[in-house]
Amino acid sequence: MAIRYLTAGESHGPALCGIIDGMPAGIKVCEEDFTTLMKKRQGGYGRGKRCQTEPEKVEVLSGIIGGKTTGSPISLLIRNADYANHKHYMHPFDEPSPEGEIPIPLPGHADFAGAIKYGLDNCRIIRERASARETAIRTALSVPARNMLHTKNVTSVCLIESIGGAEGKVNYSLPESEIKKMVDKNGDLFLTMDSEIINVWKSLIDEAKKNNNSLGGTGCVIFYGLPIGLGSHVQADKRLDSIIAAAVMSIPAIKGFEIGYAKALSEKRENSTDGIKFDSEKNVFSRTSNFAGGIEGGMTNGQPLVLRFHMKPLPANSRSESVNLKTLQPAFPEAYRSDVCAIQAACIVVESVVYLALANEITD
Q1: In Å, how far from its chain's centre is CA 49?
Q2: Contact by Cβ (8 Å): 78, 136
Q3: Distances (CA, A) of 21 to 6, 18, 49, 99, 330
Q4: Separation CA 192–CA 169 (nearest Å)
Q5: Which domains does the chain have, with CATH numbers?
Q6: Can you tell me the distance from the alpha carbon of 10 to that of 147, in angstroms, rounded to the nearest whole number?
Q7: 338 exposed, middle or buried (CB, 10 Å; 0-12, 13-18, 19+)?
Q8: Longest dimension (CA), the chain
Q9: Structure confidence by residue, pLDDT tens digits, 311-341
């Protein structure tokens, strides 16, 4: 049975909610699985004040009983603590107060295109749903999928490659245990293998915050233990690289995606294919390299799945010119609270949506 999920909710509405259908029965899930993961999504240097005010406690409404999935749809709820400060223009039935209107779209956000699409002059209606706050419930929905894949010895690690153009040292060819050891040693502020880049990144973020700017970056998620043959070469919509790309690119602010060393491969002038070897004593296949990043022809090839993505600077700190949709006169959007850098959170969200995609392939 295919796994499918839906989310609902606004950034400053009463709550975020989600439902995931198709999860098998008997998967162990505990409350700590949710709290630990949601804390990771809120982590990283450069996050905004919203993370300090939202506990992101996940409430399970159905589909898990006694610490195990039942096979029924799993429904989750995350209440927005900040709704109390916005309910006078976010209440489901009360007439919204005019002070909550946002007539000036924010360049780089979805609110301009959405307002034009629906003939609106209040960008809040679009902005509330388009907000990256929605990724909190997607992260929560990934918990049973993660736990199911962990029982099949599928694991993962998240890394930040660069922030604001400053690149940290990475070595994806190292064993998983060594990569995780290096990342854990460097603490919770940055998911990195390179201890020397931490102060550089902190300084860049501090400077951006002082100047009311934001920074983007490049992140990576690596999955280990996937069997050969997940996905398909038969139809375009069944190719795993296509499915994963769609999942990752659905995350706000992600503007680019690579599997393995895609850009580097495009620039190579010598043979860059990954040779195939067979160990007759261990009865296993191996590869001489992993330039392909674990996928060939739409299917996993048994190597670590290396997913790299590029996140743009968040638009809330920009000072780009805009237009007042009520008056059609030039205007500048009002500044509002924002993360200075959210690349670490993006790593956790990318990891989450890919776990959901892989769980679907495992159960399909």
Answers
A1: 19
A2: yes
A3: 9, 10, 33, 39, 47
A4: 8
A5: 4-363 (3.60.150.10)
A6: 28
A7: buried
A8: 76
A9: 999 987 777 899 999 999 999 998 777 899 9
